[in-house]
Amino acid sequence: MLNTRLWLRPLRFSVIALLLLTLLPWACTRKTVSFNTTPEPPVAVVVADTLTRLADSLKGKPSLSTARKVVLTKEEERAAKEKEKAAQRKSKKKKKKLFLGERTKKAFVKSGPKGRNQVIEIFYYLRYFQQPNPYAPARYYYNSKKHKIFKATGEITPDMKILHGPYKKMQNNKVLETGYYALGTKHLRWERMDKNGILLAKTHYEMGFPRDANISYYGNDRSLINEVVPYINGKLEGDYAKFTIEGQREWTGQFENGHKVGEWTHYWGFRNRKQHIYQYPESGYDPEVEEPELIKEYNRNAILIYDKETGLDKRGMTEQEQAPKGRAVPKAPAKVQPKRARP
């Protein structure tokens, strides 16, 4: 019995060694393990250099599925490209720029030295001319020849491009002033910032009139404006205007920090023609002057007869002498007597 066990022991080791040699190649082979109980679908062969049909897309964008890709002919490929270009052109059509129901056009002007210190103003103006409110304290327009925004001091003519729409003033990519224009007048909220983006002033306008302005009228129907006194936070600030009972301008100027600043204009009282221009300090924080300085004067024919800067002075002359050479003084039309009624 002992001899039998001794004989079987080498045989047992031989069987185990043979079994390990058989299983070793199978154990070293890599096999993908899948936890999906459904059988894998057969792999589809995709032909190279194919185009996706419009039917194989979602809302014009190629889908992720490649199951339905087909090869297009040259004619079909050309037609697909043309259709795609037409769709792009249609999406790039310019939309009408509207503000408060009026068609506008965008423009910009640059001022100052080139570089970081250059000031850029981005704005819009009316595509078709409209006359601003004659009672507005200040009216603004764009001169395309001089590439500059002006504040109108006299009559508004159709060749002036009336500001209408958003406005932005920038320097070195920093916003200095923002607001809106409506038919040549300041409208809604206007903000002014320094170069660091700190808010300096905020004013609300209603078609040119400050929201807190003190407005007086002729008569009780409030249709004829007499005077517009601007107030901001209880202090005189902004554009001032005074009108005659006929609706003509009599005085225009500007307040800052409760004081008169800049140029103040006195008018003749017809056709908004200027008569005198007085100079006040440039800033409301400068010492206030008792009497302003006369810097320009015009006669009734809108001819400059006095200019302090150039030394021109024709105030004591007749209208014929005041007129520039080669320019005749227009004569007033003869008065027509009314016809008497027959007895």
UniProtKB/TrEMBL annotation:
Biased segments, Basic and acidic residues type: 309-324
Chain positions covered by the region annotation Disordered: 309-343
Q: Would you tell me the protein name for this molecule?
A: Toxin-antitoxin system YwqK family antitoxin
Which source organism?
Hymenobacter aranciens
